[in-house]
Amino acid sequence: MTDSPLAQWRRLIDDRRQWKLTPDYHRAELEGLARKALGLRMIDQGEFVEMCEIAEAGRLTVLEDLAHQAFQRAGVYDVIAEGTGELLGEILSGTFMSVPPEPRGILGRITYDDAGQLAMFDGSPAEWKGDVRGLTWTRRDGQQARLIEVGRIVAGKVVRAITDADAFRLALDAHQVAQEEGDAARANALALLIELGRFRRCPTCRDSFADKEDCAMCAGRGLVEKEWSSV
Description:
- This protein is an alpha+beta fold.
- The protein folds into three domains: about 5-65, no CATH class; about 75-155; about 160-230, no CATH class.
- About 35% of the residues lie in helices and about 25% in strands.
- It has helices at about 5-10, 15-20, 25-40, 45-65, 165-180, 185-195, and strands at about 75-80, 85-90, 95, 105-110, 120, 125-135, 135-140, 145-155, 155-160, 200, 225.
- The protein has an eight-stranded antiparallel beta barrel with strand order 1-2-3-4-5-6-7-8. A two-stranded antiparallel ribbon has the order 10-11.
- About 20% of the residues are buried.
């Protein structure tokens, strides 16, 4: 027997996995159920409005959470074993893939569990392979692996991260010029490259010409590798 629209709404409003996967669609689904309940006179107009407001509040809360989530669905990541530095594979749009010399194949997928927690799953039915918190995957045996973003998919194409310090410096300078010239499209494209780059401005000297020469943190470069930086 199918649940009533009202019973479905009450069940789905707390479905954390679906909220995280498709917040806009989930909100629309909830509003549709509320509209059906109104049409069946299970609720009145005031209750309908209140249910729609609750659904929208849920959507906004999830979008805020996702904005602060370290893992990006459009990201391309190298999966590096802690301690050994071994490259375990590559994550592309949430799919964990093997890398050469191993044959190309799917090793798992990152998605949300029923509680809304990111985790690695494999197989069908999906088997839990460990939670992903921040950019760290803790496997079932307790060993950890880091997810290092090496690119991002933009408009269907992979934009690779800058791994050379001189190239990163050129991108910073070009970004400043684009901003000064009001070239928003170029500035935005360069901002993405800077965001993805392996480097950051030194948190100690802030890349200041007057201070970086004697800076022990960056050895005068004004830049530090991302994993060294606290910003």
